[in-house]
Write a structure and sequence with these properties.
565 residues, alpha+beta, six-stranded antiparallel beta sheet
Length: 565
């Protein structure tokens, strides 16, 4: 057998074994065997260099013991100052982390999470496109996040292993809408009971329906995750009617709370689209609003037939932009018209316009109007509606409903059978209701949070990065509440990677006729018991400024925010 070389561990197991078997056969078939060298004689140099294993990578090639492995194109981090023996294991760990290793079997979940976290940290180190100057508050983000990854140089031990009393106190503070005001910097976060209770309070949300064995958010594109799970209602119409009746009661309860300004907003998540209802005073609007995305031509026609008045803000914005561009080119058009007039004076004919192509009067002048088939009215209508059909399932299909039309939309969604899938894994399953406050039929749920420690490469060096991962439907108020807690606990220095549920990113579009100068005092008087912190309420009352995008990266330094969308 070939001698074992220290440090040689090929990524493939079978090809080297086949090569060893082949070498054994060659040695057995060779009749001439060289005698061993006499004692004391110098070893004979080989006539040809040893053949390298073709199945091994460059970093995995066999090498003699004691020799360093070459790394081309990647500078090795400098050794620690002084070269103390105690620092050797630390640098060996860094070397093992940063080297490119061949694919292996998956490690346990904790190790996989740490590697995934390291990848996220490498992505977040890149310089983001942030506003020119830091701000003390980041804009409101109305999209729903599926995962948050907070990172800081300070540990998150204060968020671990909450006591039963602290957990119960956090639930009580949420249900009673108790406002928690922390100092700018908490000296001992792990020992701060107020901080730990507020953290539990910020993780609470309300959900309907509650089926613990099913993941009810997100619903768009969730067939694979729901497939194979028990769904006794899929073939039972009576059970489907009971579920929809219960869902209608919960939906109506949420709308009544919204109308009474006891609920700031809530989401209705179907398997095809998502609806965001917002109370009056939020997002720069003084009346109730509802935004739907994505929509289809069939859904919009059904809403029109029910008498629901709505607008398409992004489509109207595109038309306004085109009109401004045409006004900007007015002088050019005037100049061109003068040139055309000069050409006509010289006896030349003007160039045909686009309107002339749509006219059929020239057929009559040629006398062939009966021989050429003209497009019928249906074809012309389909041609005009081509753009409307093309924007289906896209962010541009966002529909905005305002005022009393939201109540008509409520009745439409309750009676609309298409909001529930007729076939597939989600067949017969009512839409998901997400709310920051309690409502009839709602179930209290909490976001899953855990802390992870890892090493991240920052400027050719490795630093201990402490992270806090939050998984679940993170709504706008939860994001703002968590950042306020981290601002105090992490001493005004942390960063976050935000994972957005993409169909909801368009909810950051600015509303029509929004009032950016909405009086804050009026909002506080109108929404005193909606369950949100006053600072969170101030943020959500501002006009949306992110457009079709959402915040992907958020960073705080010296108590000032920068972000990337």
């Amino acid at each position: 057998a070939a001698p074992t070389v220290p440090g040689y561990s090929p990524g493939f197991k079978k090809p080297p074994a086949m090569l060893r078997l082949k070498r054994k056969r060659l040695r057995k078939s060779d009749p001439v065997v060289a005698p061993p060298p006499p004692c004391g004689a110098a070893p004979r140099a080989p006539s040809a260099p040893a053949r390298r294993n073709p199945f091994s990578s460059l970093d995995n090639a066999p090498r003699a013991a004691g020799t360093s492995r070459p790394r081309e194109g990647v500078p090795r981090p400098p050794p620690p100052a002084g070269g103390s023996p105690s620092a050797a294991p630390f640098w060996q760990l860094l070397e093992s982390v940063c080297e490119d290793k061949p694919a292996r079997r998956e490690e346990p979940s904790e190790r996989t999470d740490i590697l995934t976290l390291t990848d996220d940290l490498h992505l977040s180190v890149a310089v983001p496109k942030v506003p020119s100057s830091p701000r003390h508050e980041f804009p409101a983000d109305w999209s729903v996040k599926t995962r948050l990854l907070f990172m800081s140089s300070q540990p998150f031990t204060w968020a671990e292993h909450l006591k039963a009393q602290e957990e119960a106190q956090g639930f009580a503070q949420h249900c009673r809408a108790i406002e928690t005001n922390l100092p700018q910097s908490v000296q001992e976060p792990k020992l701060s009971t107020e901080l730990r209770c507020a953290f539990q309070q910020s993780l609470v949300y309300w959900l309907h329906p509650s089926l613990p064995w099913l993941q009810l958010f997100p619903r768009i594109g969730a067939d694979r995750k729901i497939a194979g799970k028990a769904s006794p209602w899929s073939q039972d119409e009576a059970l489907q009617q009971v579920l929809m009746s219960d869902w209608s009661v919960s939906f109506t309860s949420l709308y009544n709370l919204l109308k009474a300004k006891l609920c700031p907003y809530f989401y209705v998540c179907t398997y095809q689209f998502t609806v965001l209802f917002r109370a009056a005073g939020l997002a720069g609007s003084d009346i109730i609003t509802a935004v739907i995305s994505p929509t289809t031509r069939g859904l919009r026609e059904a809403m029109r037939s029910e008498g629901i008045e709505f607008s398409l803000p992004l489509v109207e914005e595109s038309r306004t932009r085109k009109q401004k561009n045409s006004e900007g080119n007015f002088e050019t058009e005037v100049t061109n018209s003068l040139k055309v007039g000069n050409c006509m004076e010289d006896g030349q004919e003007p160039a045909p316009s686009d309107d002339d192509d749509e006219s059929f009067s020239w057929l009559e002048e040629m006398g062939v109007q009966d021989k050429v088939k003209k497009p019928d009215t249906i074809s012309i209508k389909l041609r005009k509606e081509k753009h409307e059909v093309q924007m289906d399932h896209k962010p541009e299909s966002l529909a905005l409903v305002r005022g009393t039309n939201t109540f008509t939309l409520l009745n439409f969604l309750i009676n609309c059978k298409s909001i529930v899938a007729a076939a597939g894994p989600q067949a017969g399953l009512p839409p998901t209701l997400l709310s920051p406050v309690a409502f009839r039929g709602g179930t209290m749920q909490t976001l899953k949070a855990r802390s992870i420690n890892a090493k991240a490469r920052v400027h050719l060096a490795y630093e201990d990065i402490f992270s806090l991962e939050v998984i679940g439907p993170v709504m706008p108020h939860s994001l703002h509440s968590l950042t306020m807690l981290l601002k105090s606990a992490q001493r005004g220095a942390f960063s976050a990677v935000l994972y957005t549920h993409e169909p909801t990113a368009v909810f950051n579009t600015s509303l029509d006729n929004a009032n950016p100068a909405l009086n804050k005092e009026t909002i506080r008087k109108d929404l005193p018991t909606c369950g949100l912190h006053p600072k969170t309420l101030d943020q959500l009352s501002q006009c949306p400024t992110l457009g079709k995008d959402s915040i992907r990266f958020l960073e705080m330094k010296d108590y000032a925010y920068t972000w990337k969308s």
